[in-house]
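Quick one before lunch.
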Amino acid sequence: MTAVFAKTPMLTDAVLHYCPGCTHGIIHRLVAETLDELGAGERAVGVAPVGCAVMAYNYFNCDFIQAAHGRAPAVATGVKRARPECAVFTYQGDGDLAAIGTAETVHAAARGENITVVFVNNAIYGMTGGQMAPTTMPGQVTQTSPYGRDPKTAGYPVRVCEMLATLDGTAYCERVAVDCVKNVRGAKKAIRRAFENQLEGKGFSLVEVLSSCPTNWGMTPSGALEWLRENMMPYYPLGVYKDKA
Ligand SMILES: Cc1ncc(C[n+]2csc(CCOP(=O)(O)OP(=O)(O)O)c2C)c(N)n1
Ligand code: SF4
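Model of the thiamine diphosphate complex:
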């Protein structure tokens, strides 16, 4: 049989442990393809989060460090400063990056660290069973908001791109989605741009990827993508929020 589509070399042969319909796998592939296309795989160092992507180190053919919950940008800062020739990236969920890791994220951006951050926003804590995240939508039912997130008591969702765009140290931030082919292509372009910026020494670059968690949202894979389009996209508009170029 003729193979018409193969794994990109930067991905290992390990079988992904993600749930059926989870978009982490698509985003892994986009990062891996980008590193292959830029010829940066040999000098790439990834920093894995705590969250469903905690074992990302099993899936990429490059060096990886697993950071304590939320601390990936601090770890990436150390690696990049010690080994500036490396292509250093973090891969983080919204619980990791926008809850416990808020300080690390904001200050890495404010310092203009020359790293690439891939931020997977699925509006929930996936790995731990579906608790409310800072990015959970108003009214969204989670394990810790069984009647829906009530902004009166639980506040409003955090728009990470908009927030980081205000910082002078942020070189580039863009929000993309992986709900359809067109948007997956856009996501790839943004991830590539975020790595190119780093290789050109432009500074802190972040790509926020609107993603689905069918398991904890209690939906089918296609229903979850529909929910993402109807509920997340209006609150989290796609687009470039900062580009120092
Ligand atoms: C210091 C600390 N606090 C809490 C946890 C528990 N914990 C593990 S993963 C996680 C949430 C992960 O959610 P997210 O970052 O959104 O990633 P996802 O699993 O949705 O991809 C939490 C709270 C932990 N491991 N360490
Ligand atoms: S729990 Fe959610 S984010 Fe985690 S692997 Fe399953 S679908 Fe993906």
